[in-house]
Amino acid sequence: MNDRPAGAAGIGRTGMGDRPVRTSTAPTFATAVRYALVPVRRLSLDAVALRSGLHPDLIRRFVALGLVDADRDAAGHLVFDPEAPAVLARIQRLRSGLCLNYASIGLVLDLLDRISLLEADLRRRGTRSETPPWT
Q: What single DSSP character describes residue 45?
């Protein structure tokens, strides 16, 4: 009888005669590292300022207030997601259309994102709210 646990490396017995059988125990590793197939395009501060029509200092202020997300590259410069100009345009529309200060715009943006998630969940379920979306 084989004293080795099932799947152990080496030579084991099949139980069918005395013929030795080599069992494989190649190590299996679960990896959590994922690589993007296509590099994610990031926009520099100047590119975002050009696309949005805003001054770079105002964009830096929005980053400091947490209204728009930005990361830093290896050189320490601000880099943005490609949808940052659209977020900045939304901030400007809220500021001019509703006369909100920048602190309250952060709250409004969070609420609008939450509403979008809830409406998307309703669409996935196949139900709709009675009123059409106002945005």
A: H
CB atoms within 10 A of CB 51: 16
Spatial separation of the C-alpha atoms in residues 52 and 43, rounded to whole Å: 12
Q: Which residues sit opposite 78 in a β-bridge? A: 72
Q: What is the CATH number of domain 43-125?
A: 1.10.1660.10
Q: For tokens 């690589």, what's the residue?
A: 35
pTM for the model stands at 0.60
Q: Per-residue pLDDT tens, the chain, 135 aa: give them.
A: 555 445 444 444 444 455 555 555 555 555 566 666 777 689 999 999 999 999 999 999 999 999 999 999 889 999 999 999 999 999 999 999 998 888 899 999 999 999 999 999 888 887 666 666 666
The domains of the chain are located at 43-125
